[in-house]
Specification:
Elements lengths: L8 H16 L17 H13 L1 H11 L7 H16 L4 H12 L8 H23 L2 H5 L3 H10 L4 H8 L6 E4 L6 H10 L4 E4 L3 E4 L16 E3 L2 H10 L6 E4 L6 H9 L3 E6 L2 H14 L4 E4 L14 E7 L13 H5 L4 H16 L3 E11 L8 H10 L4 E8 L8 E7 L3
Parallel strand pairs: 5-6, 5-8, 6-7, 8-9
Antiparallel strand pairs: 1-3, 1-4, 2-3, 9-11, 10-11
Helix pairs in contact: 1-2, 1-4, 1-5, 2-4, 3-4, 3-6, 4-5, 4-6, 5-6, 8-9, 11-12
């Protein structure tokens, strides 16, 4: 139990260091560590965790020049990484950051490293110009991406890879999707304006906020007027465009954003699957908030023998598990948890899902294959391999969205099954 006040920077640095350490040990941020932090400290901890992970390559480079030998105490190293992020982004508060980092160090490793933390951070401040100049000439440190990841982007996008990398290192934009069953986009824009929240229309049902804010500040969020969803993710329902009355399968549904968007657009008979019961409960909660209904089932979509009732689907959304390389600014831990060999592993799983779902589609039906990846092996190359196995299938539409200031990176391919 920490002795630090939960509203102090020292407490936030301490908790961020512990979460950062868990990520480097292989734990995903999606596993809910932030949800266990006291509410008063959560925004600061989240900023420190996500910011330091986005800049991990940068912080790692700086520590390599600030430490005379590797630290045995990994938790102290992680504390230094989050403190360096804070120093870089809040230089006006340098004295406070150093002081609070030393206090946080008193809670780790028996309190033996307070002097080291103080010395390393003050050394950084003295040598900041020199260190940042050296960093700017190091491709890996300045890109803040693993070498193998950079190589994949450079191979796939020789003209765009540097812009993709830059986008991946920035905080993500925040966009909303208005629930048309509970009001129009124009009406919701008026509600935002009444709360002095600046926004503009984007896409068919979306709104781009000028600046991110907690969902609690969104008028009518709890009542289901609106959802938070990236415009790139909103493209799924726009491309899928389910016909009223159709029987639809959302094969990998959690957390339920695309599921809900489909139901907002049309009255359909929808079955939402996800592998884990906890993730299914999240889908159900999202649908309940929005006043929508679907059958939600915890099941492996690649094993239809265990759940399919034999009735074909008119349309299938296969938003498959992937490396998440297109949404890395929202999930910066992915850069450091993934390995090059994971691409092939995900691609094999995606192929199994496609092959399992295709027989469930009625003749004349459509399947939308979707990922939040930028890597071709998971996207266009994956679809090409599938079409080689299913030569009668037809590719109706294909698009690769690269991350921009407005949206994240996504891949979509709409496939038709001949009648």
């Amino acid at each position: 139990m920490s002795r630090l006040p939960s509203d102090s920077l020292a407490f936030a640095l301490l908790q961020a260091a512990r979460i950062h350490l868990a990520v480097l040990a292989g734990q995903s941020l999606a596993e809910g560590q932030l949800g266990r932090i006291e509410a008063v400290a959560r925004p600061a901890v989240q900023d420190l965790v996500y910011g330091s992970l986005r800049r991990y390559g940068r912080g790692d480079f700086l520590l390599g020049r600030l430490l005379s030998h590797p630290l045995v105490a990994e938790e102290i190293r992680c504390l230094l990484l989050v403190a360096l992020y804070r120093l870089e982004t809040r230089p006006e508060a340098a004295h406070t950051v150093v002081d609070q980092a030393v206090r946080a160090a008193g809670e780790l490793a028996g309190g033996r490293f307070g002097g080291l933390v103080n010395g390393v951070l003050r050394n950084y401040l003295r040598r900041e110009t020199e260190l940042l100049t050296a960093l700017s000439t190091d491709p890996l440190a300045s890109s803040q991406h693993p070498a193998w990841w950079l190589a994949e982007l450079q191979r796939a996008y020789p003209g765009d890879w540097s812009a993709i990398v830059a986008a991946g290192n920035t905080p993500p934009p925040m966009a909303l999707r208005v629930n048309p069953r509970r009001g129009s986009r124009a009406e919701y824009l008026e509600r935002l304006a009444a709360e002095d929240i600046a926004a503009r229309p984007l896409g068919e049902a979306g709104l781009a906020l000028d600046r991110p804010l907690p969902v609690e500040r969104l008028p009518g969020f709890a009542a289901g007027l609106v959802s938070v969803q990236d415009p790139g993710a909103q493209r799924a329902a726009e491309l899928f465009d389910p016909a009223p009355g159709s029987r639809v399968l959302d094969a990998c549904a959690a957390p339920g954003g695309k599921t809900a968007h489909l139901l907002e657009r049309a009255d359909i008979d929808l079955l939402a699957l996800d592998l884990k019961p906890a993730r299914c409960r999240r889908v159900t909660a999202n649908l309940e908030r929005l006043g929508l209904n679907a059958a939600v089932l915890a099941a492996d979509c690649a094993r239809p023998d265990r759940w399919w009732d034999g009735r074909p689907f008119d349309a299938i959304l296969a938003d498959v598990p992937c490396t998440a390389s297109g949404v890395v600014r929202r999930h910066p831990d992915a850069k450091w948890l993934r390995r090059a060999e994971d691409i092939a592993s995900f691609a094999a799983s995606q192929a199994r899902i496609l092959d399992a779902l295709w027989p469930l589609l009625r003749p004349g039906g459509k399947l939308l294959y979707a990922t939040c990846s930028l890597f071709p092996a998971e996207n266009g190359e994956q679809v090409a391999r599938f079409l080689a196995r299913q030569p009668l299938a037809r590719r109706c539409h294909e698009e690769q969205l690269l991350p921009t200031a407005e949206h994240d990176g996504f891949y979509y391919c709409l496939l038709n099954k001949p009648a």
